[in-house]
Write a structure and sequence with these properties.
The protein is about 40% helix and about 20% strand. The protein is an alpha/beta fold. It has a single domain, classed as Glutaredoxin, CATH 3.40.30.10. The longest helix has 22 residues, at about 1-25.
Length: about 180
């Protein structure tokens, strides 16, 4: 009886994990097609990302300081490596409804010193952020390869950047020579 339960557990585990192994999770999917603008009304789309490794920071109801810390830390990767670019996308679907967009744009630009160096895209309805797997109250980092495949999705943590993202960027850069 104990042996049958063991095998039942093994089979159930395999059946559960096979779709993740075969199809993967969010990682490996093509980056979502988008058209967003920054606070200065400059438009960006998926085609702006083609041909380079792109670090994408998804901000969804995170504290501004967490997002600034993340972007500041990742910024050095983009500055050190000509094959890497960086963008940030902020989910604004839960913004205060009575605050005009123009006021919010100025406030965001004024409070985030990284917004002058890193394209800071405003996702007013949250569609792009949600399609990319953004989560409320989390700062998520995506690594997108030159073919626009999401190859890594991680919640921002200093240790994650050092242990996973930096080595992955180095590997992708070597492949792109």
């Amino acid at each position: 009886m104990k042996n049958k339960m063991h095998w039942l557990l093994v089979v159930a585990t395999v059946v559960y994990l096979v779709p993740f192994i075969v199809f993967g999770s969010d990682v490996g999917n093509r980056f979502v097609d988008f058209s967003l603008e920054d606070p200065q009304a400059k438009k960006y789309s998926q085609t702006d990302m083609e041909g380079k490794i792109t670090l994408v920071v998804l901000q969804s109801r995170t504290t501004l300081q967490t997002a600034i810390d993340c972007k500041t830390e990742l910024k050095s990767l983009a500055q050190e490596n000509q094959k890497v670019r960086m963008i940030a996308i902020m989910d604004l679907r839960k913004r205060p409804p009575l605050v005009p967009k123009s006021v919010l744009k100025k406030k965001i630009s004024g409070q985030d010193p990284t917004s002058k160096e890193i394209p800071f895209l405003l996702d007013w309805d949250g569609t792009v952020t949600q399609a990319l797997g953004g989560e409320d109250s989390k700062c998520i980092v995506l690594v997108v390869d030159p073919a626009l495949k999401v190859v890594c999705k991680q919640e921002y943590k200093k240790t994650t950047i050092d242990s996973k993202i930096k080595p992955l960027i180095a590997e992708l850069s070597q492949r792109q020579k």
